[in-house]
Amino acid sequence: MFLKKTAQSEALQVGLQLLTWIGLQGTNRKRIWRYYFIVGWLLGNVILPKALLGSGDEGFDSLVRSLAEMAFFSDVCIAVGIFVTRLRHFERMVQILKEIFDRYETKECVEEIRRFNRRMDIFAKSYIAYIGMLVFLFFIPSIVWNLYMTIFVSPAHRSSYVLLMEVQYFYLDIRHNFVHYLLYFVLCGAATLCSAYQSCIKGTIFLTALQYGAKLFELLHLRISRLDEVEAGDRRREELRRIIELHNMTLKYTELLEETITFIMINQVLNCMAIWCMFMVYLSSNYGPNGFNVAVLFVVFIVEMVVYCVSGTHLSENAFKVGSAIYHYPWYLEPADMQRDLRFMIQRAQRPCGITAAKFYFVNIERLGILVQASYSYYLLLKNGF
């Protein structure tokens, strides 16, 4: 449904389709029960059993894995839950994005916008395919290993079943009883798919919206750099007026994007350090099918955080280029009223522009380096202490 080819790509098309299917977008909000079902299923079959009953196995490694998995699956629920409370900002952001694109009327800009929309459409669909591939890899070790033990290993020599995730599942003997394990696998497998769906929403909405913000500043920079080609007089005056208007609208888009995902980013950053260091502790001493499952979750969180930081850096850099371009333009030769408007534009462009984590710091490559260092330090503390 979401990977089908479309005749005309539009902004955030794939992400909006995902939201529409669960009733968070569009006119048919009666489907919102699907969103509550997805969240409820994940809570009831993964997060609550882990929180109330523990891992079901003794040992520090088992505890670390259980806590890391609970943090991982909780993160996606919290992120999408925060997003639901910010839907009003998001809908206004999408509206402004479309209005900005409508104001780029030249053939070159229109073609560039269409190409970028197609590129973002491919990115979103590729992200969904990437998550689908990781879900498949997440299931494979448990299926293959447990089938091998069931068919080729006698009950007397059979070890415990390999679990999708470390959990005591409602007092069922999921480590040795095949019927209990099969019930657990179906229900927790469905919960994993619910988590994957919410991860797709994060990728196709948050990551794509960041890249659209960077593109808006890039288009604005292109328009400013070609001001000299516009005939002096009324035409240039009109072009300057449009540039100022587009700059204000682009800043408004960025502000709404910030309002939409700033608390999602602080949740992402805080969970990042905890999840990375706990996964590294587990992977440093556990191999085989269990280690492979943990590695898959580790890869999901690493790639997600890297793309967030790279996109945030790209957005900030393009915003800085706009300020630099207007600063080097001979604005002092324009009429007095235009000089005043351009001066405000220059002053605003001097302030850093980007996405922050709850207003504390910008999400960028520098922050990624700090997170990696902090996570590794906590990993060493846990590894040496236990």
TrEMBL record:
<keyword id="KW-0552">Olfaction</keyword>
<keyword id="KW-0472">Membrane</keyword>
<feature type="transmembrane region" description="Helical">
    <location>
        <begin position="291"/>
        <end position="311"/>
    </location>
</feature>
<comment type="similarity">
    <text>Belongs to the insect chemoreceptor superfamily. Heteromeric odorant receptor channel (TC 1.A.69) family.</text>
</comment>
<feature type="transmembrane region" description="Helical">
    <location>
        <begin position="127"/>
        <end position="148"/>
    </location>
</feature>
<keyword id="KW-1133">Transmembrane helix</keyword>
<protein>
    <recommendedName>
        <fullName>Odorant receptor</fullName>
    </recommendedName>
</protein>
<keyword id="KW-1003">Cell membrane</keyword>
<keyword id="KW-0716">Sensory transduction</keyword>
<feature type="transmembrane region" description="Helical">
    <location>
        <begin position="178"/>
        <end position="197"/>
    </location>
</feature>
<keyword id="KW-0812">Transmembrane</keyword>
<dbReference type="Pfam" id="PF02949">
    <property type="entry name" value="7tm_6"/>
</dbReference>
<keyword id="KW-0807">Transducer</keyword>
<feature type="transmembrane region" description="Helical">
    <location>
        <begin position="261"/>
        <end position="285"/>
    </location>
</feature>
<dbReference type="InterPro" id="IPR004117">
    <property type="entry name" value="7tm6_olfct_rcpt"/>
</dbReference>
<keyword id="KW-0675">Receptor</keyword>
<feature type="transmembrane region" description="Helical">
    <location>
        <begin position="35"/>
        <end position="54"/>
    </location>
</feature>
<feature type="transmembrane region" description="Helical">
    <location>
        <begin position="66"/>
        <end position="85"/>
    </location>
</feature>
